[in-house]
Design a protein that fits this description.
It is built from three helices and eight strands. The chain is an alpha+beta fold. Strands 2-3-4-1-5-8-7-6 form an eight-stranded mixed beta sheet. The protein is globular. The structure holds zinc ion. The site of zinc ion has 6 residues, from strand 1 and strand 5.
Length: 137
């Protein structure tokens, strides 16, 4: 894995939290994006090499809604950038990690993503992400 690409934070209101994090980081968000397949609205901040992703549920069956109901707002996942998501998924499977999706799926911020179940990673939801090449803004 290359680096921590971003940290995902589950919030009740993107609007309020965007203001809060702008003040905290002294930096404006660079991107707002809905990911309908995950039932979330996302906002990204870039701090040097890393990013912060705020996630708000926009549908009742959104995993973010369930997360907040159970645990409240807070850190939801850590995302690692990988060069080749398919081979990394194969490697992790062989190591015994439980993947939440069998094939990479399109995520926010022009990425292919795959999630690793928190029960196989000390309670931390792990996201693998690979930049979708040739389609950068
Ligand atoms: Zn993420």
């Amino acid at each position: 894995m290359n680096k921590v690409e971003h940290i995902g934070i589950a919030v009740n209101s993107i609007e309020e939290s965007e203001r809060l994090f702008s003040g905290l980081l002294n930096e404006n968000a660079y991107k707002v994006e809905n990911v309908a397949s995950e039932g979330v609205s996302t906002t990204f901040f870039k701090i040097g090499e890393s990013k912060i992703e705020l996630l708000e549920a926009i549908s009742d069956d959104s995993p973010i809604r369930r997360f907040i109901e159970k645990k409240g707002e807070g850190i939801h996942h850590i995302a690692f950038e990988v060069a080749d998501i398919e081979s990394e998924m194969k490697r992790l499977k062989k190591e015994g990690f439980v993947l939440l999706n069998e094939t990479p799926k399109p995520g926010a911020d022009n990425k292919l993503v795959c999630f690793v179940h928190p029960k196989s990673a000390n309670g931390v939801l792990i996201e693998l992400c690979q930049e979708i090449r040739g389609n950068n803004e």
